[in-house]
Design goal:
The complex is a heterotrimer of chains A (about 230), B (about 375) and C (about 400). In chain A, about 30% of the residues lie in helices and about 30% in strands. Chain A is built from six helices and ten strands. Chain A has a six-stranded mixed β-sheet. Chain A has a four-stranded antiparallel β-sheet with strand order 2-1-4-5, covered by helices on one side. The longest helix of chain A has 16 residues. With about 375 residues, chain B is of the alpha+beta class. Helix content of chain B is about 55%, strand content about 20%. In chain B, strands 1, 5, 6, 7, 8, 9, 10, 11, 13 and 14 form a ten-stranded mixed β-sheet that branches. In chain B, strands 2-3 form a two-stranded antiparallel sheet. In chain B, helix 2 runs antiparallel to helix 8 and helix 8 packs parallel to helix 11. By secondary structure, chain C is an alpha+beta fold. In chain C, about 55% of the residues lie in helices and about 20% in strands. In chain C, a hairpin with a 3-residue loop joins strand 9 and strand 10. Classes of the chains: A alpha/beta (about 230), B alpha+beta (about 375), C alpha+beta (about 400). The interface between A and B is medium-sized, with 33 and 28 residues.
Chain lengths: ~230, ~375, ~400
């Protein structure tokens, strides 16, 4: 690997209580992600790939093990510092888009900036720029329920990158979209990756693998294997 | 975009949601204000009407030993009769607590020659006297002029007089205007006339034997009014009537307690209503909080969003509720109290209910918001 | 799976939501119940007060030349002739056995006599039956106690001052007979302040008028007092025993009328509370149904008819509001009882009335169902696709 390591996951163990029995979601994951990578986490449902994504995304503390991002042990941070960390380092794209229903496209994109000290016009400019970039420059003032699924996905992507974070996490970004729209979204991700963004994506759709650089296969909470594509 | 503008946009773009929250707060505050105002003015009205019934203060000249009479037996006192004067009525009407004086009924008692017999005639100010004794019922017309005479039942029976009959008192002719029905009191054996006429006939111009006073005791204890009168007229002795004071304590106080109980229940229920409304509105937004957390919002930013909302909705609901409450009370109070009651806007009640609504809204949103913000973002987003 | 089961399942799953709706509804019903209980308790207390006071009837010897020489304790003439003649208590015997007799709650005879102390001060003495007299003079408050033995005496405030006598002093009356001052009346502001009171038998003995009285005050308690008193007066006249009864008209009657009028208005307050309570319940139900537009879309997408959806929502509404009605009844009663210390004596008046409970449950269900009906119909009429986008 010629790239410097950005994310280093060490011995990630995640257990949770389901009813009376304890379930091991992740059984000691070791994973390094380099700067500028486009990584896909593949596996059947229940393999733990989404759990791993949230753990890497500083959203979900593991039972044991640590996640080092840019030399910072993220789970040693308090939950508030971790919130600040997320705001600075990462963007998220979810399967259900998770847009705020009462905010327009541009306002949803501006959300990550709302907690910054940037003046309003600057926030607006930044949001417009990224919306332009994802191809929604003409639908700035639509509410989420006035947008198609693909468009909502693009808003979610724009929101994830508006802050110019080094890493974007995507959980099944094409899961709720038709094939054609899915391909457009993957192309968009590829383009963003080409501009230097590190992307980690969970997917169970093999067609998406055409666009990523590396694929990690998971089953039953452990890494089964991986494949370098480029 | 700032954090608080997120709150404003939520309220503006989901008007039906905000509407129900504002409506909930409005109902709570409105109910508090309506009930409190209506019951309170009903209570004041009741207390005042109660105090107007019969005298509760007697004012007599200070005399050591005067003639006593009870149940037809008299004993002669050693001192001569002393009198109050007409001006004492004005003095009572101008005491420091004069706002609490409802009725002042001056009287002069004098034995006069009536149809050849010496009988006790009471000179009264008829309008005041009739206001003081709403239980008086009589045959004939309402006495008001200087020629008018109102007879006690026994007096009329013994003298054989009926309303409309002429009557000679101390050589002058008067007319029987009315005859009281039996009262079961000494009034049955008396003759009531205009005060000025009695003063002239008895040669006791400007003199009064006693003054009966009805005072409102809601805002000022009767002892204070009695003390005021004693200060104003140094040669008089004012006394609170034990029977009236006791009756007031029993009847009006249970009404007062009723007012307190109603206010307590209404305040409690209203507060609960605001709490439930706000808790409900924040609770269902757990998923949204998860998104904010994933985007790197601090708990304090999330609190800011929700507290801004609570503040705005609390203020709007509180003010609208107060307005609606005052309006409702204005309409209801006359119906409830049965009499035209001026329901004055009460700034203290208004301020305290609005502050209560805001404080409760903030409190109610803070708890579920903190709880949701403390949840794992992943957990929170799973909430629907 | 029946529609009712779907409704129940939804209620079971959304526990927190249901809890909130329930609380809103319970608050509405609890307010109504609490207010009703408090209002009823107050009315009862006031009624009891006036029932205890009752209606007074004054019995005197008939056909006397009775002119008053005084008013409110101020006497301006002496001896206008006639005066009051005494009569014998036994005259009342004829009334015994009549139906009215049982309604008489107090018979307070009085004998008036003038007396003088060994120092030559003159005073009026009232012989009374103390156990009966206190029923008539409920407002009396005394320092010390009522006379118990034959040689004890109670003094009015002014008289005590004039005689310079205080509690436990001994005064000499009626040619050297000694009396212990067992009590002094608080200032009443009336003639009562100038009188002395002793057991009527004692005064009869001292004045040589055994069994004779000047007047008798009768009290007829209860809310029928006035009518019964009128009957009694007629009865006494009919018996031709030489006595005349007069119903005492004073402030009490006027106060009673005032209280009755205001008690009516407290019912109006209860009506206002019902209105407010219904509004609370109505808005709670309405907002909860409105929130579920999205779900309704799912049902519609799966081929549910409008009537199915309306049924599900109404089942839910009826279940929740029925439960709220019951809970609200108990919450309201508890609230009334808890706020009883604030109300003081009213406490005793708060009674559990199951009829109110049923009425409140009925009201709650009616309001809940009616309030849900409008948003339910509206939601059912929505285009399913649109309804789904509410998510």
């Amino acid at each position: 690997m010629d790239k410097t390591t950005l994310i280093n996951a060490i011995k990630i163990l995640k257990k949770y209580q389901s009813g009376s029995e304890q379930v091991t979601a992740l059984g000691g994951i070791e994973l390094k992600v380099g700067k500028g990578e486009f990584l896909a986490l593949m596996g059947p449902s229940g393999s733990g790939k989404s759990t791993l994504l949230t753990i890497l995304g500083a959203l979900n503390p593991p039972t044991s093990g640590s996640v080092i991002i840019d030399d910072i042990d993220v789970y040693k941070l308090s939950s508030e510092r971790r919130a600040d960390f997320r705001s600075a380092y990462m963007g998220f794209v979810f399967q259900q888009f998770h847009l705020i229903s009462y905010l327009t496209a541009v306002e949803n994109v501006m959300l990550p900036l709302a907690i910054s000290n940037k003046p309003h016009h600057e926030q607006l400019n930044m949001a417009k720029q990224v919306l332009d970039k994802v191809g929604l420059g003409n639908k700035l003032n639509r509410l989420p329920n006035q947008l198609s699924g693909g468009e909502q996905e693009r808003v979610a992507i724009a929101r994830a990158i508006v802050n110019e974070p080094p890493i974007v996490f995507a959980d099944e970004p094409t899961g709720a979209l038709d094939v054609k729209t899915g391909i457009e979204i993957m192309k968009l991700f590829q383009q963003l990756n080409g501009e230097g963004l590190t992307i980690i994506m969970v997917t169970h759709n093999p067609e998406n693998l055409d666009y990523v650089k590396r694929t990690v296969y998971m089953r039953d909470g452990i890494i089964e294997g991986e494949q370098q594509l480029s | 975009m700032r954090v608080d503008s997120i709150a404003l946009k939520n309220m503006a773009r989901r008007p039906s949601k905000s509407f129900f929250i504002v409506l909930g707060i409005m109902l709570a505050v409105g109910a508090i204000v309506t009930m409190y105002t209506a019951v309170n003015s009903m209570h004041m009205e009741f207390a005042d009407r109660f105090d107007e019934i019969g005298a509760n203060i007697m004012v007599v000249p200070k005399t050591q030993e005067f003639t006593l009479s009870y149940g037809g037996v008299s004993i002669r006192g050693s001192s001569d009769l002393t009198y109050l004067v007409n001006d004492d009525v004005v003095r009572i009407n101008t005491i420091p607590n004069s706002d609490n004086i409802a009725t002042v009924a001056p009287k002069l008692l004098a034995p006069l020659d009536v149809m050849g017999r010496k009988l006790v005639v009471v000179g009264v100010d008829f309008p005041q006297e009739l206001a003081l004794k709403p239980w008086w019922d009589y045959q004939g017309n309402t006495p008001r002029g200087v020629m008018d005479v109102l007879l006690g039942a026994d007096t009329a029976r013994i003298l054989g007089l009926a309303p409309g009959d002429p009557l000679v008192i101390a050589g002058e002719e008067f007319r029987v205007t009315g005859v009281l029905h039996p009262q079961g009191s000494e009034e049955d054996g008396l003759i009531f006339m205009q005060l000025l006429a009695v003063q002239r006939l008895a040669g006791l111009e400007d003199k009064l034997s006693l003054i009966e006073v009805a005072a409102y005791c809601t805002t000022c204890p009767i002892e204070e009014i009695v003390a005021d009168i004693n200060d104003a007229i140094h040669y008089a002795q004012a006394t609170a009537l034990g029977e009236a004071v006791q009756a007031r304590a029993q009847v009006v106080d249970s009404f007062t307690n009723f007012t307190y109980a109603v206010a307590a229940v209404v305040f409690f229920i209203g507060s609960m209503l605001v709490l439930v409304t706000m808790i409900g509105s924040v609770k269902e937004r757990t998923r949204e909080i998860g998104i904010f957390r994933a985007l790197g919002f601090r708990q304090s930013s999330i609190m800011e969003i929700f507290l801004t909302e609570a503040l705005v909705l609390g203020v709007i609901g509180g003010i609208l509720g107060y307005g609606a409450g005052v309006l409702a009370a204005r309409i209801l109070a006359p119906v409830i109290a049965g009499i035209e009651v001026a329901v004055e806007p009460n700034p203290i009640l208004g301020g305290s209910t609005i502050i209560l609504a805001i404080a409760l809204s903030l409190l109610a949103s803070a708890y579920p918001a903190v709880k949701a913000a403390k949840l794992d973002p992943v957990e929170a987003m799973r909430h629907i | 799976m029946s529609l009712f089961k779907i409704a129940l399942a939804n209620l079971k799953i959304r526990k927190v939501k249901v809890l909130l709706i329930l609380t809103g509804m319970v608050l509405g019903t609890a307010t109504i119940v609490a207010m009703f209980s408090i209002t009823a308790a107050m009315e009862k207390e006031l009624r009891d007060h006036f029932d205890r006071l009752g209606t007074k009837v004054l019995l005197l010897e008939e056909q006397q030349e009775r002119f008053s020489v005084s008013y409110r304790g101020i006497t301006v003439a002496e001896d206008l002739g006639g005066g009051i003649s005494l009569f014998h208590m036994e005259k009342l015997e004829v009334l015994k056995g009549t139906s009215l007799w049982n309604n008489i709650s107090a018979i307070a005879p009085k004998l008036v006599a003038a007396g003088s102390t060994s120092r030559g001060e003159t005073l009026l003495v009232l012989g009374v039956d103390f156990s009966e007299e206190v029923k008539v003079k409920g407002y009396w408050s005394i320092k010390g106690r009522f006379p118990e033995a034959q040689n004890e005496i109670l003094l009015g405030k002014n008289l005590a001052e004039r005689l310079d006598a205080d509690l436990n002093d001994i005064i000499s009356l009626f040619d050297g007979k000694l009396f212990l001052v067992s009590g002094v009346l608080a200032e009443m502001g009336s003639q009562e302040d100038n009188l002395a009171y002793m057991a009527i038998e004692e005064l009869q003995q001292l004045t040589g008028s055994d069994g004779q009285v000047s007047m008798i005050e009768l009290v007829i308690a209860g809310d029928q007092g006035l009518e019964l008193a009128e009957q009694l007066v007629k009865e006494i006249k009919a018996k031709k025993i030489g006595l005349a009864g007069t119903i005492v008209k004073d402030a009490v009657e006027a106060r009673k009328a005032l209280v009755e009028r205001f008690a009516q208005f407290s019912k109006l307050i209860a009506m206002v509370v019902i209105l407010i309570g219904s509004l609370i319940m109505g808005t709670t139900m309405m907002s909860s149904v409105k929130e579920r537009t999205g779900e309704i879309g799912i049902f519609r997408a799966q081929g549910f008819r409008k009537s199915h959806i309306i049924s599900i929502i109404l089942y839910e509404a009826a279940t929740v509001s029925g439960l709220s009605g019951a809970l609200g009844y108990f919450a309201g009663m508890s609230l009334a009882i808890v706020s009883a210390p604030v109300i003081g004596q009213v406490q005793t008046g708060i009674t559990i009335n199951p009829l109110v409970g049923f009425l409140v449950i009925g009201l709650s269900v009616t309001v809940g169902v009616l309030a849900s009906l409008y948003p339910a119909v509206r939601a059912a009429n929505l285009d399913p696709v649109k309804a789904l986008s509410y998510f």
